[in-house]
Amino acid sequence: MGDTTHHIIGLSGGKDSTATLLLARDRLPKNSIQPVFVDTGNEHPATYAYLDYLERQLSIQVTHLKPDFTADMADKRRYIAQDRRTGRDKRGVKLRWSNRRKREALAELHPTGNPFLDLCLTKGMFPTNRRRFCTDFLKTRVFVGFVDDLVQSRKKVIIWQGIRRDESDKRKNAKLFERVGPGFYYFRPLIHWSEKDVFQCIADHGLNPNPLYQSVGRVGCAPCIYSNKKDLRALFQSEHGPATLDKIRDWEQRVARASKTGKAVFFQGKQLAGAHLGEVHPLVFYQRHSIDAIQHWASKPTRFVGEDWDNFEFEQESVCSSEWGLCE
Predict the structure, then answer these.
(1) Three-state SS for 64?
(2) pTM for the full model?
(3) Backbone CA torsion sign across 259, 260, 265, 269
(4) 81, 167, 173, 293: which has the highest count of C-beta atoms within 10 A?
(5) Digit-coded pLDDT (tens) for 182-220
(6) Is residue 17 a contact partner of residue 321, using CB atoms and an 8 Å limit?
(7) CB 65 within 8 A of CB 143
(8) Is 198 in contact with 32 (CB distance < 8 Å)?
(9) What does the alpha-carbon distance between residue 32 and residue 4 come to, in Å, rounded to a whole number?
(10) CA–CA gap between residue 63 and residue 115 (Å, rounded)
């Protein structure tokens, strides 16, 4: 791993990627390291502040990447404007956009500069556990494109990934070093580490971890579609809670206007109403899954129709993760 090798560290602001960056700094010349942060537009303010903290403490510069959906949104506008379909789908829903839905969607479909919102406007929905397009479009594709440009320039590139085998079944067989293609490799220095080892590494370097760990288990989008009740309660009760609620309320209204149904909620993939969408009336489902209903649910134990909401999938730990180590 000489100076001619370009070392990319996928930096999320979380503990694992921070420890990975510190190991790279210990072993390599500073000018061969490039920390890269992919900004979704839905990050917690504390994470942006923590990246600034790392830059100051380590005397490094973090490369910030941001996806752009301007072209995708233009394609979606053309598709909606030209929609002339007839008939209904298998559920009996009309295939063609109504004239009212067309007018509202075309008025809303303009780039905002926020990648997360622009992606959801283009999709006409928020990501769900079944259609989790957020990580792919907001992080992976941007990062892969950046790395591919380096590889095409004939540089030897090693991606340092903050992945641990004890995180999940998906990662339990991760390799320490892996060749992806000519001049392109993955290196995963933390695969044998525990969570305790990671925090100890950060402390041994005289640094503090992201302050979000004082109240949440994982650092990522704020909120993430996989957020559990504990994390949501901490987020909504923090100093950033009111601004977060305002943000998601606004996003829900805007994405609803850009959708074919005229309805959208951030946490559509969860079952807080006791049923999937389609098993209860849509008005009931969307009312019970709006961000204000989610905030009410997260604030205290609540029972509905004889069921304890705390026992639903939403109470499970967050599981969103990227194979590139971009989300933690």
Answers:
(1) strand
(2) 0.87
(3) negative
(4) 167
(5) 888 999 999 999 999 999 999 999 999 999 999 887 788
(6) no
(7) yes
(8) no
(9) 8
(10) 17
